[in-house]
Amino acid sequence: MHGKADEPAHVHGRAEPLWSIHYLRALAAFGVILFHTLDGTPWPFELGAAPAHVLAPSTLVSVTPLQEISSKRVAVGQKVQFSVVNDIAENGMVAIPRGSLVEGTISFKTRKAVGGKSGKFEVTFDKVSVRGHDYAMRGMHRQEGKGNTVAAVFATWIVSGRSAVMQPGQFAEAFTAEPIPY
User: Fold this and answer.
1) Residue 93 CB neighbour total at 10 angstroms
2) Which pLDDT band holds residue 115 (cuts at 50, 70, 90)?
3) The domain made up of 54-181 is a member of CATH 1.10.10
4) DSSP three-state, residue 44
5) 53-67, 115-129, 167-181 — which is least confidently predicted?
6) Residue 134 to residues 15, 88, 110, 126, 172: CA-CA distances in angstroms?
7) Which secondary structure element, helix H or strand E, spans residue 84, and what is its range?
């Protein structure tokens, strides 16, 4: 049927060197070829060891900040750290363990102002670290300080609002943005 290893084999009417077909089959059989996610990062499993389960994108994840975040002290573009509040389980298996780190970025901020205006900030969730691999997250949390508008009506030049503060133990909601194997 086939000639020697260096003789071409005819595949779809084209002459292909026989060694190239065997080489590609060997690569696939031994799992050398890695899948890549849309952003170009390698999938953590090789071809021969595909994950048994995958957590779907848009899965809700409750997070809490590791340290106090205050509109007094943050700047737009600053990275802030959160942790996952509860295990995210599916099919009786933990996909994202409680305590996994989540990174967010301060995407908006105002300070408190005269006239009873409160401080505000927004955190945009970027990624979650699960078993040594980073996966994209999406979602945003807005934190506002308490205004003081009633007092401001009577004493506009003295009264100001309060800074926005988010404490550890306070929950925010983020979502997975890509499949997470487990």
Assistant:
1) 11
2) low
3) no
4) strand
5) 115-129
6) 44, 16, 30, 10, 19
7) strand 79-84
Query: For residue 181, what are its two tokens?
Result: 């194997």
Copy the structure tokens of residue 71: 């509109």
The H or E element containing residue 67 is: none
> Strand pairing partners for 106?
123
User: The whole model's pTM is what?
Assistant: 0.66
DSSP structure class, residue 160:
B
Delimit the domains of the chain by residue range: 8-49, 54-181
Taking alpha carbons only, the member of 178, 176, 167 closest to residue 80 is 167
**Are 114 and 157 in contact, with CB atoms under 8 Å apart?**
yes
Residues 105 and 77 sit within 8 Å (Cβ to Cβ): yes
The token duo for 44 is 């953590």
Scanning the structure block, which residue is given the tokens 């508008």? 149
| CA 154, 156, 160, 161 torsion-angle sign | positive
